[in-house]
Amino acid sequence: MKSSIAKLESKIASKEDELSSAETDDQESEINDDLTELRAELAKLEAQAAQMEGAEQTEKPQNPPEGKEGRPSRMSGESDKIGTTNFDQEPPFGERYAYV
């Protein structure tokens, strides 16, 4: 799809060069007609590409971002110590008890 768009853009550029070197009004009008058709094709291809890109994004499942070892990354405010037995001597709040 992108190669087709690139080819059309190069064709448009060459036609614009031809337009600047056209000698008669008939040549200019013919080149302008060709340019109009090429630009319409280009717009059509770009719309299709944008539509396909949008469809690809909606098809992808929205998975949560993963951190190290394939685990989901932490939410804001979560501590490294949640779910571990690493207790400090001076906790920031309250008392903690560990049962073995």
Task: Using brief descriptors, characterize the structure shown.
100 residues, mainly alpha, 2 helices
Q: Could you explain the architecture of this structure?
A:
The protein has 100 residues and is mainly alpha-helical. It has a domain at 2-59. The chain is 54% helix and 0% strand. The chain has two helices and no strands. Helix 1 (2-20) runs antiparallel to helix 2 (25-59). The longest helix has 35 residues, at 25-59. The relative contact order is 0.09.
Strand content: under 5%
Helix content: 40-55%
What is the end-to-end distance?
Answer: 64 Å
- CA-based shape: rod-shaped
- How many H/I helices? 2
- Overall mean pLDDT stands at 77
Helix-strand makeup class: mainly alpha
Low-confidence stretches: none
> What is the H-and-E element order?
HH
Q: How many DSSP E strands?
A: 0
Biased composition (Basic and acidic residues): 8-18, 66-81
Region (Disordered): 1-35, 48-100
Biased composition (Acidic residues): 19-35
